[in-house]
Design brief:
heterodimer; A: alpha+beta; Thrombin, subunit H; Immunoglobulin-like; 6-stranded antiparallel barrel; 18% helix; disordered N terminus; B: Methylamine Dehydrogenase, Chain H; 5-stranded antiparallel β-sheet; 4-stranded antiparallel β-sheet; 4 helices; 10% helix; globular; disordered C terminus
Chain lengths: 423, 472
Amino acid sequence: MRPRLVIRTIALIASLATFLGGTVRAQEPAHDAVRASLVHLSVSGTPQSGPNTGVDGGVLSQGTGFVVSSDGFILTTRHLFAPLEKVDAVNVIVVGRFADAGATAMPVQFVSDLPRLDLALLRADVPFGTAPPPALEIGSTATVDRGAPPSILTSGFSGDNYRRRVAEYNDAESAHVPYAWTLNVKTNDGQSGSPVYTERDGEVQVIGVVKATAREDDELTLMIPIEYSMPLIGHLRFQALSDRLDRLTRLIGDMTEGDPPLFPRIEKIEGDVEEIGSHFTWHAESASNGSIIIRYEKIISGGPHVDRIRVNMTPYMRFHDEEGDGNGEGVVFTTAATDLRLPGGGRFEREMAGPESGVGEFVIPGVATLLKTLVDLTARAVGGAEPYRDVEISLVPFVGDQALLPRKLFVVPDFEWADFNQN
Amino acid sequence: MTRHLPDSLAPDAGRAVARAAVAPRAFAATLLMAVAAAFAAAGTSAADRFEPPDLFAETARAPLAATPVGAQLAGDVLVVIGTTDEGRGHVASLDASTLRVRAERAFRTLPVDVAVDARGTVFVVGATADGATRVLAMDADLEPLGAFDIGERLVYPRVSVPVPGRLVVGSLASVMRVVDVSDPATMTRASDFTPPSYSTGVGRTWTSRDDAALFANLSVQSWLVAFDIATARQLGEIGYRLKGGPEEPFAVAALVEGASCAALDSSSFLVADARRGTLTLAEFDADFRSLDIVTAVETGLDQDPHAAPRPLPGGEVVRPTALVASACDSSVIWVGNVGTSEVIQYAVNDDYGSIEKIGSIELSERPIAFAVAPDADYALAVSADGRTITRHEPGAGERGTRSIGDPAVRELQRLLTDTGYPVGTIDGVLGPATRRALALYETNTGVEIDLDNLEDALGSIGANRANARKRR
C-alpha cells in the first residue's frame, strides 16, 4: 500500500470514528449527557398477602434504569421487584419516564433477569413515531486504572428527585457481596439501578450499575461491574458491534488476506465480535442431592459446545477468631479453606447436550459431603446453617482439545447440611 | 480468544516426578496402588520417596555491629539493615557460609526495609532526618550508586523488585510508588507499571514467571491478593477481615522466579499468620488463573504476650509478628514469630502437597528475621535481642526436637488429607485430629480401617484417593 493511501484511509477512518462515536459530545458535562438516557421506573401491583391484600396499587416500588439499546432496552437492578414479590403481587404494572420523573409515562415490559446478580432487563414500549432516548455506551471496568482512578459518576432518581453524584473508587471488592465493587459515595434507595460511568476524551462509558448502600457503611455504595450484565445485554452489544463493522466494511471495502491491518480500531471491533460471538454464560447452583450443577448458556446460538471442564473449588469458610469462651460466639471471619478434593481430579464431561438449545450442563457430585467433612474437621469452624460464605469455582472450559479462557463463578452452598454425614 | 494448553488434560502419570531427586526410602510395604502405578509409569521406584533434610541445628554464630531491623538473603550473601547505637542507619553484607562481614556502610537514613535485585543491587528504603522517605541504591559491595527521594513521608515503606528494573515501594498509602531502577545511578519515577491500589496499603509484591500475574501482600490486613497485570482484575485472594480487634498482615515466603529462586517455573506462597497460628501453602494455578490453597496447618506456636503486635498510633499493625522462610523447593520451611525463640521446621511433600512437620528448634534468642538458603543447605536467624546472627545446618543438636512419628501413620495422614479429610499437620502421631478424620472417613465411606493392620488399610484409602494433586 502506498503511503498516500494509508494517510487517506486513516483520515477517513478517523472521521468515521467521530461519526460513529456515539451520542455524547465532548463539551457537555457527562452528567447532562447521560440524563437523557436515564429512566425513572415505578412498579405497582395488587398484593395477595399482607395488610394491603387485594388493594390495587397497594404495593409500590421505585428505581432507576438506563437505556442500553436504540430500541428501548433498559437495564436496572432486579430488587426493584422485591417489594412486589414479598406480597405476591398480581396485576403488576411497570412504568418508565425518560430523563425526568415528570416526563410522559411509557409502559415497560419485563424481558429477562439474572436474580443472583441482581440485574434485570426491561423494554420500554416507545410509541410509534417517537424516537427512543439514546443508548449509553457500555464500557468495561477493566478500563478503570485503579492505581489512579478516574472520577466516577452516577446519576438517577430518588423518589421524584433527580440526583447526580461524583463518586470515588474505593475497592474492587466488598465485604458482603463478593462480585461488587465499592464506591465512596452516598446513594439513596431509588438510585438502585442507576448507571455508574466514567468520562474520557468526551466519551461516556458505563462501567457498572448501582446496587445498594453497603450494609456496614452508608457512605459506601455497592456497584455491580457492567461485565456481569453481558448475559442480558451481550446480544445488544453484539448487534451494535456487528452493525458498526458492517458499515466500516462497506465504506473501506473488505480486507484481503495479507493486507496490513488498516487501523487498530477495526481490529479491535473484530476481536470484540469474535469474543462475544463465542461467549458462554456460566452459572452454578447447589442441588438438593449434594452436587453442584454448573451450567452454561450461549448468548449466540450455533457454533461449538463445551465438551468438558476442569474445575477447582475454593470454599470460603466462616471461622471463630477465638476458641468458644462459653457465652460468646467470638469474632467471626471468613477465609479460604483448603481447596476441595474433587473426584476425577476435577475433570468433568458434559452431562446434558443440547446443540440446538445452546445450553450445557456439568454435575459435580458429592460437594456437600466434601464441604461438610471440611467443616467438621476444621478447628474453630462456625458450622451451623451457613458454614460457608460461598464457594469460588474456577473452571477451564474445553472445546475439543482447545482450552477457552478460564472463568470464575461463586455459588452459595445452601445444602441441608444435616443430610450429608452422620456425625 | 482461546488458548492452547496441551498438557492440561493429560493424565497425571508422571506428575509425581518431583523437582528434587530425593533418594527413595525403603518401606515399600506402605505403598498404595494408585501412586505405585503413577510412579511405575514414570520409571520411578515406588517407595516413600519423601525424605526432606533433617532438622537444623546451630553451627555458627557471629555478632552484628548494629541492632538489626530486617534482612534479605541473595545468593550466598545476607544483607542486614539496622540502626547503630549512635542512631545512624547501617547496612552490612555478610558471607552466609562464614558469617564474616564482606562490606558494611553507615548513613543518615534510618532503614526500614531492604530488597536485592537479580543483579545484586541492594535497595534500602528508610526515613531521612526530616521524616521523608528515601531509597538508597548500593552495589553488591555496598558502594553507593544513587539515592531517590519519594518526596513524601510513607508509613512503614516496603520495597520489592517484582519485575526487572522496577522497584515498587509499598506503604500504608493506597497507591504504590514505582521507581525506575534500570540505572540505579539515575532513579526516576516510573509510570509504565501500575500495580493495583488498596485503600489500606500494599506491602511487598511479586510477579508470576510469565509476568501475567502480580501478587501483593497487603500492609495492614491479613490478605494476599493476585491480580492480572494487563487488566488489573483480581484473580484470587487469601485472607480474612476481622470485625474488631487489631488486624495483622501476613508473613509471606514467596517461592517465585526471581533473585533467589531463579529456576522455578511456578509461583507458590507460604503464608504464616500469627493471629491464627497457621501456615498455609498456596499456589498460583496458571490454567485457572487463580490462587489455590493446597493445604493449611496450625503451628501451635506460643508467643510471649509482651511481644504482641505493636499497633501504630492509628491502630494499625504493620510489621507482621509471624516469620516464615523457605527453600525454593520447600523442603525446608521455618515458621516462627518475633515473640518466641521456638522455630518449627516443616517440609512440603510434593507428591501430596502436604505440609509435614520435621521438628521444632529452640533458637538461643528470639529472631526478628530469618532466611533459608534456596537450595536448603542452611538457614540463618537474625536476632535483635543479642545482636547476633546464627547459621543452622541439617543435623539436630540438643536444642531441637525431631518429630519422629510412625511412617505408616504419616502415610495415613497424607492419604486422609488428600482424600478431603484434613488432619492438620502431618507428624506421624495418631492424635485426636487424625482420629477424628479417620472416624469421619469411616462414617462417610463405610470402610473400616484396622489400625492394627495399617498397611492393608492404606491400600483401601489409596484406592479411594480423590485427587492426585496437580503440583508440578
